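Quick start: load a record and inspect it. Here is WD repeat-containing protein 31:
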Amino acid sequence: MLLLRCHLKRALPQKVSCRFWAVMGKLQSKLKHSTYKYRPDGITEERIQTKAFQEYSPAHVDTVSVVAALNSDLCVSGGKDKTVVAYNWKTGNVVKRFKGHEREITKIACIHKSDQFFSASRDRMVMMWDLHGSSQPRQQFSAHAMVVTGLAVSPDSSQLCTGSRDNTLLLWDVGTAQCVERASISRNLVTHLCWVPREPYILQTSEDKTLRLWDSRGLQVAHLFPAKQHIQTYCEVSEDGHKCISCSSGFGGEGCEATLWDLRQTRNRICEYKGHFQTVASCVFLPRALALMPVIATSSHDCRVKIWNQDTGACLFTLSLDGSGPLTSLAVGDTISLLCASFSRGIHLLRVDHGRGLELREVAAF
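Running the structure step on this input writes:
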């Protein structure tokens, strides 16, 4: 079944430009988005026209809250439709749908080099899924009193850490689905969790404006970073485990920044990335193969994805996804691709282009 939307051009009333949205299959379409390229000095701004891109079958029928890369071909996403979807973003096909949650999906965490992953929901449940197994959850983890807002898998995949708005972190044995540790701190409304590679440490952001480093051996706070001025919405750890980024809420340019921290002995603030106008919802370290310098990317409720020089804080490129609504989640797809979830237009496939320097363009949506 096809829905047809037509836009009449005022200057040429005899011509009709039509856009098709397919329930099944994929179609080609051209849309215009605003992109901004910044020189290193941050002064000159150049407006660039994006290229044509593909519209695939939509993965979800409502807002997408989270997207994560399962491997270099597949992503896993969830949202308000209460469904977890495994999607091949290179072919534009749904691989599998997983249903079991009763409310919106809030977080997804994938097991490294595996076809298994976890989903968390506003129904206070965490479920473990197997891409090649049953459509029913392999394990269920239930102990939180409020919405689950954090998921992190240990490097050896034997433990799962969950966090919630109930101020509690729980550590689980993945094999038995039994809770083995519990920690609670007043006003510590968890917003995100991330396990430090090759270490027993878990990074956590909170609505109390702080970033905490937990030791999973006993689930104790190992370090409390200096409090920021706004809610910390998200965190990410570099592949080498030496640095981490956290994101801030905000409005009108107040707050709305990402912050780079040292995770080694000093654990100091290294750099800030300012330029968004609304809450920064997600941040990622980009693969070193993308640029000669280390770079990070951020996505925001202001509909923009920005690429930053990690060392200097200079904004290298801005892509504005007009009509997408707030951008809710960002994930690295492969060495040249990003996956960006949005409130109004599903998931955007973005590609880094070196044709005229470091640029970011949208190549597909689903």
